[in-house]
């Protein structure tokens, strides 16, 4: 699959504050973003944003109801901004979603089709949330997938481990940021 994009998902200030364990997550993610840009791979940011008053949140959706009660995800709030350590550049695309998957309530599919992108590299917070949901939807859309294991983060390290070691490898290439950067570097060199 020749046309790839790096998806940087839900790396928003409030989410990073909750999930970042001090393990160097943001610098690793920054390295992946910089490497993608250097290789000419588009970087697409995905954020969750809910309208003020949250008309799109059903009380049957436990995750969003709890998030709203905790004061999270309202569009325009400072906590919904993409973390400044990995902020988008002028040519990057930012997609707003309304649910767990990057595809839910967003125009991501339209953006991918318009750019003829048929392969995604997934990074983001949380592994058990946006990464899992997006991966499942992308499979149904016949999109090629790579998961950057150390550019994904979850509040539960065991859940992250099980997903990235047992489940995701059934559907996607699961690699480290370093291995992915080496692969795209070799691919770029081969084209010269």
From TrEMBL:
Q: Carries keyword Cytoplasm?
A: no
Any idea which UniProt keywords this protein has? Hydrolase
Q: From what superkingdom does this record's organism come?
A: Bacteria
Q: Would I find Hydrolase among this entry's keywords?
A: yes
A single GO molecular-function term is: hydrolase activity
Q: Isochorismatase-like domain spans which residues?
A: 4-179
Among Pfam families, the record links this protein to: Isochorismatase
The protein in question is named Cysteine hydrolase family protein
Phylogenetic classification of the source organism: Bacteria, Bacillati, Actinomycetota, Actinomycetes, Kitasatosporales
